[in-house]
Specification:
Order of helices and strands: HHHEEEHEE
Number of helices: 4
Strand order of the largest sheet: 3-2-1-5-4
Helix content: 25-40%
Oligomer: single chain
Shape: extended
């Protein structure tokens, strides 16, 4: 079993720097929200709505701070691993070429931790725990996969899978 110190060293320098910078930004944003108590007094519905928005923002920031700290400590994402180690599935770092149902062909970089994708490749990255990533977990070249999007169900043909 890997301890958290060994797992933390698995992050490359760019990923670690990116996560540390994100953590610093999040902590600044959280500090700007100030106290979330009802010290100011909620006088009307506008004040109450603003208080709710600040609490929601603080919760979102706090959740992401915990997630970034977990990643820096070598833990897995809150979403858990995209596939279990026993599965053959799509490997972290693979490049997958797909032909989508609209005819477009695209090569995507598969990543278990999206923050680990180099900035230059981030626009063409694919999270292993996304609906598309999960649909690709057991796919082979030549397969047609189906996955959910906010706009409904879509399909893509797997043209090529290049292992890392």
């Amino acid at each position: 079993m890997t301890n958290s110190t060994e797992a933390a060293s698995d992050l490359n320098d760019q990923t670690r720097r990116h996560l540390l910078a994100e953590l610093e930004t999040l902590e600044e944003q959280r500090g700007e929200l100030g106290s979330l108590g009802n010290d100011d007094g909620v006088n009307d519905t506008g004040d109450a709505a603003e208080q709710i928005r600040r609490i929601d923002d603080a919760n979102r920031i706090d959740d992401r701070v915990r997630e970034v700290k977990r990643l820096l400590a070598g833990g897995v994402s809150m979403n858990g691993p995209a596939i279990s180690p026993e599965q053959d599935g799509l490997a972290d770092g693979s490049v997958v070429t797909l032909r989508f149902d609209d005819g477009d062909t695209e090569s995507l970089y598969a990543a278990a931790i999206p923050e680990s994708v180099p900035d230059a490749d981030r626009a063409r990255s694919l999270s292993l725990d996304s609906p598309l990533g999960r649909a690709l977990a057991d796919a082979s070249e030549g397969d047609t996969i189906t996955y959910e999007t906010p706009g409904g169900e879509r399909q893509a043909e797997v043209l090529k899978i290049e292992a890392p």
